[in-house]
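Lab meeting minutes (informal)
Scribe: AK
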Amino acid sequence: MIELKQVTKQYRQATVLKNITLSMDEPGIYCLLGRNGAGKTTLLKSIAGYQNITSGAIRVNGKTITTSTLDTDVSYIENFAKHFNLPVRKLLRIASEVNPEYDVDFALEMMERFELDGKKKFHHLSLGMKTMVSTIICLASNKEVVLLDEPVLGLDAMMRVEFYDMLTASFQKHPRIVIVSTHIIEEIAKTIQKLIIIDKGSVRFFDTLQSVETKAFRISGLQKDVEAATQNLNVLGKDTVGGLETRYIFDNPPKQTASLDIQPLSLQDFFIQMVGHRGGIKR
């Protein structure tokens, strides 16, 4: 279980995390979405105990997390993680020597699956392969909480498909809380159970993916018809051109009529509406 209470993180005059209160109390694959600079990496590092927060509290399985916490029950690998310049197979085995819960068989199986050359030294790998080694080490740790920061960075389309399969296989073998930060939104939709959207250091949305699928819609038509149909609904944003209007809602949709076009929002479009930006302009 992860519990955040009024978590704030400041760097000098900049507030990167703003009074976040959030609980994740059941196993699942959670997706963390946010624009660049929204606070995603800061949030993950704070949960992992890589840095102290300015105020508030973070607990994992009841244990308060700070940089002095000896065993956080959290496995975290940031993007561009560095490792000793050793052969891949040796790196995977070294990880098992410092963690008795480490799943060596899973790590070696994933090495073969991704056709990683076990004899090749880490610094000689491509960016995608370096990312994959880091991710395998993180997932094989068997920690109760796994944090993956941009784990598909540098992976081509085929490797990303393999990654999502690996993530699912790892979770099925060892259910736990897995938080994945990513920019490739639509691809991960088939894998996750819950969605966290962070914007300017604040959590804007935290719910199941199913809730997005059943409540996120765009409603288009003549302006007067759309306004009438959505007047009591939770409207996220709108676009108006001439006498036509499109409204984006997160609510139970109105009944379909001949004057309205009602379509579900993609996860990416829902994210865009939730953060309230398009082309850098806040609407």
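Next up, CB showed the second protein from the same session:
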Amino acid sequence: IQVIAVESPVRSHASDGLAVLEASKHLHLEKAPADSMAGFQKVVSAARSKGLLLQVGYMWRYNPGIVAALEAGRQGWLGNIYMVRANIGNQLAANRRPEWAEFSGGVMFELGGHVIDPMVRLMGRPRSVTPTLHKDGAYPDNLKDNTFAILEWEKAIGTVQSSTLEPGSSRYRSFEVHGTNGHAVVRPIEQPLLTIELEKAAGPYKAGSQNIEFPPYKRFVDDMIDLAAAVRGERKLRTSYDEDLLVQEVLLRCSGMYS
């Protein structure tokens, strides 16, 4: 056995992941990789010291629509980025609310990481994060079920919205990158449809608006292909230890759980 995937309760992710690394196995660790910064730092430190692979299971890291939107942003095809927006919600069954209420960040901590991940890997560490965490559903629990976060960089703003109260939520999940030369909008995220709208042609895209469709996409298939290739030494993983640490930091800050 060369690789072990951990998908235990979130409260156990860090300890279970650390056990895998201490056994000298490569690790795929489901999100959120820990419920604290210190817990995940121990995991990353163990992976570094042993030279082992660590892949965190954010489900859209290999989504072709989000990958293409990030490429457009990184290559400068959108101009100077001034806004990144994302929405991810669901309509959570009442019997699952106590499970999600375990952590004070609520739905932002449970779901928000999937869109915070690409946002942070594109934009880097925000200089400030302002979370707004409401419990607005009419349920006898304390789940923060209606949440919003504002992220600020030197010359850009990001927003993340996540709620458990949203009917038809899959149609409204979105990831958007806005720049001075145009926009890259992924909506829906599954099956991804990317709309690119540019003032001036850039990269492979013409001026004006165009919709980019992709072959059928299934979560985690490409993640496992990439992990296997990295184990064989054919290429590096798409995301580094330091990027994973930064995503964890910003997720906790957006969830009001950073310390």
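CB comment: The two ends are 36 Å apart (CA to CA).
No objections, moving on.
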